[in-house]
Amino acid sequence: MLTRYLTSLVSNLLNSPSQPSFFSLRGLTKLKSCQFHATSTMRKKKKKKKKEPEGPKIIKPYDCGDSPKPILDPSCKVAIVIGGSDGFGFAAADHLLCKGARGVVIADNDVDQGRMAAQRLCDSYGKNRVQFFEYDANNPCQLEATLSQAHCKYKQIHIIFNDSDKERFPSECNATRKKENYVSKATRAGLKILGKNHGGPGGIIVNCASILGFMGWPKDPFPVYCKKEPAIEVTMDFAEKFSVEETGVRFVALCPTNKQFCDIGLPDFPDPIPRDRLRDMPPCIPTPKGQIRSALGHVMAWAKSGSTWVVEPAISVHEIPRLIHFPLKEGEKIDPKIYGSQVKSFLCRYYTG
Fold first, then answer.
1. Is the CB of residue 231 less than 8 Å from the CB of residue 225?
2. What are the CA-CA distances from residue 73 to residues 87, 143, 306 (Å)?
3. pLDDT higher than threshold 80 for residue 23
4. Helices (H) and strands (E) in the chain — how many of each?
């Protein structure tokens, strides 16, 4: 009897229209839904509290489709390194193979050292990746024959690196020919192999010569080399005579130095050094050769034809070579501001004593 009474009372309360809506079944449904409803603010707080997974974060780069592409990548290319048995030439050959060159030809007049250099590189990068061909820089016919031999083997040559600091053995076979320096001979012979006007694929010829500094720096620079090979003058002359549009070949001068960039200016032509003081003087040609690697990679990728680049010594923090500016017309002067604060500091030291 009591149970029936309680059941009837609860039923009347739930269904009575005079009671507040929260007593009705519909009201309870709304109340239930409101209790579990999450606002947008709460959702944001929950997202912030979410723990990030442990471990390294993967950062996706931006779209690099519009970034400039390098002019020349040594990957899958063939290069000829003149004077590559040691020094800057060997360092250049090593860098080209490290960057994926298909093959490197070392051309040198030192047969024993050249073969040893080729074998060392083959041991590091794979069998038959490097070939050695003997050549005599004094004989243009032999130099052209050596380059032609390399061209016949690989079909296409894209890179020629000419180490002008190498010692050249004298030869009498060229005595009747017009006198021409070694850099010019190598550049002219390389142009016949690389030039599109001669059926070649195009590419780059890099003339490397160590430099003591520049007279008239920085307004009207004149180079003073460690050897007698005028790499900069020859490079600029060929770039002016043979355009990239015609030949597809860029001519670039690369000059290693023992001085930092702010110290390459020579106020006066250096007087001859007495022989008794030569032993105490540091060598003009840099002893470490590793800086040429990053410098060569940079000029292959970005250098314009006819440009000159200085490679600072290993103690410098700048691995990228420095572009040297020359007057384009006779009588022009270079504004020192183009080099920034480093040249200003040099000028202050020079003019203040």
1. yes
2. 23, 26, 19
3. no
4. 12, 11
- Mean pLDDT computed over 177-192: 84
Residue that wins the pLDDT comparison between 44 and 72: 72
In whole angstroms, give the CA distance from residue 263 to residue 347: 10
Q: How far apart are CA 117 and CA 286, in angstroms?
A: 20
pTM as predicted: 0.77
Burial grade of 33 (CB within 10 A; 0-12, 13-18, 19 or more): exposed
The amino acid at residue 243 is S
Q: Give the chain's length.
A: 353
CA distance 267 to 237: 26
Q: What are the structure tokens assigned to 106, written together?
A: 């070392």
Q: Which residues contact 73 (CB under 8 A, 6 or more apart)?
A: 99, 300, 301
Cα(143)–Cα(168) distance, integer angstroms? 13
Q: How far are the Cα atoms of 8, 28, 29, 163, 199 from residue 21, in angstroms, in the given order?
A: 19, 8, 10, 97, 95
Asked whether 295 and 254 are in contact (CB, 8 A), the reply is yes
Residues contacting 178, CB < 8 A, separation 6+: none
Of the candidates 182, 162, 152, 156, the residue with the CA atom closest to the CA atom of residue 170: 182
